[in-house]
């Protein structure tokens, strides 16, 4: 396509262009055309920035792969990496999710097509806001309806709105929402891409879809959970009140509901990690989700050690490891993306 023809493109049209996608998704590969074109038409930079964000934000999981297929993919990758000379216990945190970084080249097309497929499920409603975070990064922002959201590390979010004011969010990862109340009682729905949706009207809540479970914690107000594939003996809809939590198993569709201290699950958005009987397994989940680090411990007895208290969250893995090491009174040694733990 001629360079001048791109001048009439919207951000969405840029994001659909395969050459543009390759330029955005592979910045390490020099692309003379796009670099020269942007220098020639600097007034297009705002549109290009929106298109870049859209390309990144639509890279959601594709459901053309079943949960079993994902596990088999991970096992194949894991065994291909070889084994350590000495056996060690790897604290399990979202095993299949890590497979994407090793198989990204093979699955890139699937991921992109899956993302666009999910966008089609919104009945072609316009995506008027999209954003994402990288590992070790959080973002707080206002949505177009004046609702406030804080996005945790390694997460993605799309926001759409109908002519009648119905608001829908697609979330992959974790986010804390403070939803703006509307006088006409328009719905605000959060979809997790795992057959579970959260419907709210003016409330504060946390949704975490990382790992093998979806965890929804309500801090204030009331919400209705819509479970897309109810199992025998389970309701398709479930109401939550303030201080209640639901854990939904992605694989078998089972779920549990109980009362909790909501602050323990929502304090991250204000920059604090609250630890209540906090174990190394909990620390592993935190380091994996926020920094992409894997905790490994040879002495499994250490897994039973628990601590309580709180600490500030510093979005630098070395500092967080140092803090956790002091709290647990253990030695944390990093080797690449692995953190080996032993007693001092």
UniProtKB/TrEMBL annotation:
Superkingdom classification of source: Bacteria
GO molecular function: sigma factor antagonist activity
Domain FecR protein: from-to ranges: 133-223
Family matches, as InterPro entries: FecR (IPR006860), Ferrdict_sens_TM (IPR012373)
Pfam families: FecR
PANTHER family attached to this UniProt entry: PERIPLASMIC SIGNAL SENSOR AND SIGMA FACTOR ACTIVATOR FECR-RELATED, PROTEIN FECR
Name under which the protein is recorded: FecR family protein
